[in-house]
TrEMBL record:
<dbReference type="InterPro" id="IPR002401">
    <property type="entry name" value="Cyt_P450_E_grp-I"/>
</dbReference>
<comment type="similarity">
    <text>Belongs to the cytochrome P450 family.</text>
</comment>
<dbReference type="Pfam" id="PF00067">
    <property type="entry name" value="p450"/>
</dbReference>
<keyword id="KW-0408">Iron</keyword>
<dbReference type="InterPro" id="IPR017972">
    <property type="entry name" value="Cyt_P450_CS"/>
</dbReference>
<dbReference type="InterPro" id="IPR036396">
    <property type="entry name" value="Cyt_P450_sf"/>
</dbReference>
<keyword id="KW-0560">Oxidoreductase</keyword>
<keyword id="KW-0503">Monooxygenase</keyword>
<keyword id="KW-0479">Metal-binding</keyword>
<keyword id="KW-0349">Heme</keyword>
<protein>
    <recommendedName>
        <fullName>Cytochrome P450</fullName>
    </recommendedName>
</protein>
<dbReference type="InterPro" id="IPR001128">
    <property type="entry name" value="Cyt_P450"/>
</dbReference>
């Protein structure tokens, strides 16, 4: 009750604050009489703008409808008011190209302060310019690019097999999203920190859940709120990281572990920062946390959606099984390697088609750094611009029969530039995409060779908040393949 009251007070305060901010932005823009006009469109209700309309489109899992109705009314560029800020939306690949080539010149990343605080001052998400570039290339070169990742595919293969044995083997029915999240968590805990079980594993699992549960909630740092729990989880995770780092330092000095053992060891021992010093512990901790959180729901959501589409399109599942059997036979049953995951071409088309039809990350906000003109309209400094993947991914011209699940549309080369961007673009394009692809290929390999599944409710509702969420967590009936069908008796 106290919390409900407090929620109300804080909400009113936040609304008041943001309205003042928005009014200020509007006054600034009214100074620009000589400039091109503002884009057409409506700001909607006081305080709330058109946030409720967007929210209801997301609840109905039809975000493109919010944009399409306005594009039909105003044209390819329109203004609106979302999440307490005047916002401009522009449709089409030409804008995507413009936007992503002007990062840090005309626009910049913008996170609510509350999220920035949770991720930490040294997080890649909070950095811009040279430091941002350096952090990304450091993580790419050490682990998240092909040259780093290829060393870890056999280990992913091992973790996947153990996951299926422990979690799927004896079950008749599962809540798929929950179970796949456990897989994603085990992978990160092992590959980033070499933690596979025990108290540290359990406490991090608990903390990551609390962190993810509070990151998108009202930012009230008061005992009992989801945001407060997330802040506590951050502190607890950093304490655990400290203990692991201290232990690792000793182990490396004593030669007990290789410096290429996992992401942590690689970061601790083989990397230098701008000034030629070893990367700091603060930078390591904030970024391990950021990459961990960024991977947590994205991979599990995408895989769960793929399982749904494969169940609803058995001919596609048949193609995936065929491809995976061929890969397994060609290697005589040995552990998967990097090249195997890149040979899974049709399976990758399935994931891309999944991300086209039901994007895991629907888009992002940017803030404008100065007034600028686009197509005869002024976009004022301090406004937000919203980039959304949905409109072009559901365009009839670019993707004929856009509502049809058709992985083969991705065969024979990528779609036209800036039309299909599930991992974003430009300076902030997802640095975890190769990792995500590899993990998803390994998971699907073991899944389709060993299990059959059916959806308990093929019409299970999905809402977007902010990622697609199955209302019942995707209930699946599963069935282990046996005898002739089970072809995955691998040699380890
Ligand atoms: C299917 C899975 C995934 C999808 C669809 C996805 C999508 C995206 C998108 C669209 C962005 C750009 C957001 C923007 O423009 O502001 C992004 C950023 C990011 N992603 Fe992913 N992601 C996925 C998986 C992962 C994984 C597995 C990791 C880590 C291992 C990761 C780490 C990050 C990080 C750290 C950023 C922020 C980059 C920066 O600010 O420079 N993502 N992701």
């Amino acid at each position: 009750m106290l919390l409900t009251l407090l929620d109300c007070v804080v909400t009113v305060f936040v609304l008041f604050y943001f309205t003042l901010f928005s009014c200020f932005s509007c006054v600034t823009s009214s100074d620009m009489q000589k400039k091109a006009p503002l884009p057409p469109g409506q700001f909607g209700l006081p305080f709330l703008g058109e946030s409720l309309e967007l929210q209801s489109a997301l609840q109905a899992n039809k975000p493109h409808q919010f944009f399409n109705t306005r594009v039909a009314k105003y044209g390819e560029i329109f203004k609106t008011h979302l999440l307490f800020s005047p916002t401009v939306f522009v449709d089409g690949p030409e804008w995507n190209k413009f936007l992503f080539s002007n990062e840090n010149k005309l626009i910049s990343t913008t996170w609510p302060m509350s999220i920035g605080k949770l991720l930490g001052a040294k997080s890649v998400a909070n950095k811009i310019g040279e430091e941002h570039k350096w952090l990304r290339s450091t993580f790419h070169a050490s682990f998240f690019g092909p040259s780093g990742l290829r060393n870890f595919v056999p280990r992913m293969d091992k973790i996947a097999r153990s996951h299926f044995e422990q979690t799927w083997e004896s079950k008749g029915e599962i809540i798929a999203v929950k179970v796949i999240k456990q897989f994603a968590f085990s992978l990160v805990a092992d590959l980033f920190l070499s933690i596979t079980k025990g108290l540290e594993f359990e406490s991090m699992a608990h903390d990551v859940e609390a962190f993810v549960g509070g990151i998108m909630k009202l930012p009230i740092d008061f005992p009992g709120t989801a945001y407060h729990k997330a802040m506590l989880a951050r502190k607890s995770l950093l304490r655990t990281f400290d203990m692991i780092i201290a232990r690792r330092q000793k182990d490396i000095e004593e030669g007990k572990v290789s410096v290429h053992h996992d992401l942590l060891s690689i970061l601790m021992k083989t990397l230098l920062d701008h000034e030629g010093h070893v990367i700091t512990n603060e930078t390591i901790k904030d970024n391990i946390l950021t990459y961990w959180i960024a991977s947590h729901d994205t991979v599990s959501t995408t895989l769960s959606l793929a399982l749904k589409y494969l169940f609803l399109n058995p001919h596609c599942l048949h193609e995936v099984v065929k491809e995976q059997k061929e890969i397994m036979k060609a290697k005589g049953g040995t552990t998967l390697n990097w090249q195997d995951t890149r040979n899974m071409k049709y399976t990758w088309c399935v994931i891309q088609e999944t991300l086209r039809l039901q994007p895991t990350v629907g888009g992002a906000f940017r803030v404008t750094l100065k007034d600028f003109e686009y197509k005869g309209f002024t976009i004022p400094k301090g406004w937000k611009v919203l980039w959304s993947v949905s409109p072009s991914q559901m365009s009839h011209e670019i993707f004929p029969h856009p509502t049809k699940f058709d992985p083969r549309r991705f065969e024979g080369g990528p779609p036209p530039p800036f039309t299909f961007m599930p991992f974003g673009g430009g300076h902030r394009t997802c640095p975890g995409q190769e990792y995500a692809r590899t993990v998803m290929m390994v998971f699907l390999h073991h899944l389709v060779l060993n299990y059959e599944w059916s959806m308990v409710n093929p019409n299970e509702k999905i809402v977007i908040n902010p990622m697609p969420i199955f209302q019942k967590g995707l209930q699946l009936k599963i069935h282990k393949k046996i005898g002739e069908k089970a072809t995955n008796n691998l040699v380890t």
